[in-house]
Structures are given as structure tokens and as C-alpha cells.
Amino acid sequence: xxxxxxxxxxxxxxxxxxxxxxxxxxxxxxxxxxxxxxxxxxxxxxxxxxxxxxxxxxxxxxxxxxxxxxxxxxxxxxxxxxxxxxxxxxxxxxxxxxxxxxxxxxxxxxxxxxxxxxxxxxxxxxxxxxxxxxxxxxxxxxxxxxxxxxxxxxxxxxxxxxxxxxxxxxxxxxxxxxxxxxxxxxxxxxxxxxxxxxxxxxxxxxxxxxxxxxxxxxxxxxxxxxxxxxxxxxxxxxxxxxxxxxxxxxxxxxxxxxxxxxxxxxxxxxxxxxxxxxxxxxxxxxxxxxxxxxxxxxxxxxxxxxxxxxxxxxxxxxxxxxxxxxxxxxxxxxxxxxxxxxxxxxxxxxxxxxxxxxxxxxxxxxxxxxxxxxxxxxxxxxxxxxxxxxxxxxxxxxxxxxxxxxxxxxxx
Length: 412
Prior knowledge:
Elements: H1 3-6, H2 15-31, H3 33-49, H4 58-81, H5 83-107, H6 110-133, H7 143-152, H8 154-168, H9 177-188, H10 190-194, H11 216-220, H12 223-252, H13 257-272, H14 275-285, H15 287-305, H16 311-337, H17 345-372, H18 379-388, H19 390-406
Helix pairs in contact: 2-6, 2-7, 2-8, 3-8, 3-9, 3-12, 4-5, 4-6, 4-17, 5-6, 5-9, 7-14, 7-16, 8-9, 8-13, 12-13, 12-15, 12-16, 12-17, 12-18, 12-19, 13-16, 14-15, 14-16, 15-16, 15-19, 17-18
């Protein structure tokens, strides 16, 4: 079966590769819609339940923490048992987390709502592995395109998620409860979808046998892997930092929750729509160039956000934020995929997502504090604080990328 994936023939002649890519695109589109739903209503639900507004985005932070803590175990689990088993496990956790969150809203329990959010993080971690699964056994020249196609599935999620929020947010007496019930239904589609996935599990090692490939310490010393992790972490963390506070800022500046949903929808469209050509741009201009362009666009997003809090400024800033994330994150993922062997994927992918989502967790945790507690309750000042916080991290990622590019090719 592995010959189906390692053939040197063109990928268009390999229907199994395309079958897997299609399944992962659909997973990103349908199952992935739940994340835009949660990040649209989660902060508002937290604000409704929390006794202190400074903690309103803590449930979103716990989603990311759950993703951080499950990234390495989930990666190792999939290395041993296969992608399908790992994805099945994750949608079960997603459905359970949404069920607990819905019950918490019914009870008015902030603590229980946070517990449900933490379990949702297991699904979020698995969704991050869709892009890696797309590269399993795929020829190196097709890997950036496979990643882009799978990420492009988020385009449908960008439409489905916010529209579901509009339909469900106030559909029951308890606000947002119907949204989480709808998320349970989405996750129940997962087992059907993943039953069509055909990525063979790697062969199991004998107990006590050494892990093939480089150790974690050796992998982290690889300049390409290290810089890819830094740039991927910064791209994702800054996107999350700003997006988490966006619904609070929009509503706090006098607009409606529906306006916030529309802005998040435009943002998620900008995150995924470029994926139809990002892989081609990477193939033409190189991974490092596309990552650099992504960091510049993220900086432009922050600059626009600092100019004011009219509705059009929110829209432009969030569209730029999504576009910058797309180039920065997909470019970083392609850099990482090119720098390790198949035997090392469990270590590398788990470490990468631990670092990336660790940064996202800290950004999410900081977002509510910057938005609500650094500005004496002034939403405009809080929004400015959130966007100012991007600068040092963009400087770090930019410096790391320049250092890598200036190194002699034989030392990369």
C-alpha cells in the first residue's frame, strides 16, 4: 500500500493521494467551521458568565491550552495508530467539549464552560494536523500545494461558521447554547468523513527500540526547523491575539454582534481564500519569501487597526490579518515539511504544534487582559493595546527569517 504514496510518478496519476486530500479539504470545511463559531461567540459567552470581565476570553485561552497539551500526545498517537484513529478521537473530544459548554450555559457556570472549552482544544489540535496529513507520502514538489488545498477548505468554513452563528446565537432562551449544540452535530459527521481516509499508519517499533531519525534536541538545532517554528508561532499567535479581541472590540465600540460575525467571516475568508494560490507562489518564489510577505502584511494589519474603530477599519484590519496569517503560516508549514524525514514526523510535528499553540495560548490569554483591563474599560484604548502588542513579536520573527536567508545554503 505504501507504494501508492511513494511513487515518483505525477501526483495527478495517483488517485489515492487525491482522495486523501479531498477528505481533508472537506474536514477543514465542515468540521473546521466550528472553530470560527467558537471564536465568534466564546468571548461573548465568557463575558456573560464571568464575574470579572478581565476573564471573558479565558475559555478561548483554555481551548488553546488544550490544543497545546494534546499536540505531542496526539502526534505520537497518530504515528502509532494512524491519522484516521487520531482524527476520530479528536472529533469525539470536540463533541464532548461542546456538550459540556452547552450545559454550562444552561447552568450559568463559568467553571464548567471552561472545562468544555479545554476539551475542545483536543479537536483544535487535530485540525492543525490536517495540513501535515496532506503531505504524508506525497512527493516533495507537491507538498506546498497539498497543504494549500487543505487549508483552502477553510474558505467554506469561513462561510458556514459565521452564518451558523447568526442562525443559532439567539435561537434559544439561553444565548449561544444552540451554537454549541450545532457544534456537537458537526463533530458527529467526523467518523463518516474520516472513514474514507486512506493513510497507512507507520510501522510500529519494537518495544525499547531507538526512535529512527534525529532526536528532539538535534531537530531543534536545525536552522530551518527552528525558524519555521518561530515564524509559524508568531503568525498564528498574533492572528489569534487580535481575532480573540475583535468581537469584544466591535461590540464595545457600539456595533452589533452580527457586525462582529460579518467581520470574523471576512477575516476567515481572507485566511483561507489565498490558499488556492499560496502553494503556487511558494513554488515560484520560495518558502522564505512568502513567509516574509506574510509578516509584512501582519504589520500592515496592526497599522490599519491603529487608525480608528470605524466598521470599515475593523474589516480592513481583519482581512489583512487573515491574509498575513495565510502566507506566514502556510509558508512556515512548507518550510517545516521540507526539513525532516518521514521517520521524524511524529517528533517534529508534535514539537511544532506544541510551540505554535503554546504561543497562541499566551496570546489568547493576553488578549482579554489587554482588551478589557489595560485601558480602564475603554474599548478603543484596549483595541490599540492589543495591536501594539504585535510589534515585538513581528520583529523577532522577521529577524529570525533574515538570519536564515543570509546563512550560506550549505549551512541551512
